[in-house]
Write a structure and sequence with these properties.
about 120 residues, alpha+beta, 6 strands, 6-stranded antiparallel sheet
Length: about 120
């Protein structure tokens, strides 16, 4: 997965938008005003921070060398995934979906209902 594929996939989520609140090199994807993914445009290889269920976060870190505690994030709830080809794109998309769903579940009911329209 490259930056354009990552960007396109994240923006395909209902209500998702992108911004650069931390400077021009950090692309942030939000839903309902909350972050579900962020990536550094300067990172080589590409990496992405994704929210994750705490138990699953630990399991993924143990299973994949390219999954690490979230860089500059709450390490209980966030993973940094190094996109170096060792993780299948289908798995990465599944983890993006999981992050998005965790954030959507935390939004007020009225916002969630708007996303379902």
């Amino acid at each position: 997965m490259n930056i354009e594929t990552l960007r396109t996939y994240c923006l395909s989520k209902p209500g998702a938008n992108e911004s650069f609140p931390f400077g021009e090199d950090t692309l942030v994807f939000k839903v309902g005003g909350k972050v579900f993914a962020l990536t550094s445009l300067d990172a080589r290889p590409l990496s992405v921070n994704l929210k994750c269920n705490p138990e699953l976060a630990v399991e993924l870190r143990e299973q994949y060398d390219s999954v690490r505690p979230g860089y500059h994030m709450n390490k209980v709830h966030w993973n940094t995934v190094i996109i170096d080809g060792t993780v299948r794109e289908s798995d990465l998309k599944k983890w993006i979906d999981h992050s998005y769903e965790l954030i959507v579940a935390s939004l007020p009911k009225s916002v969630r209902q708007e996303l379902e329209k």
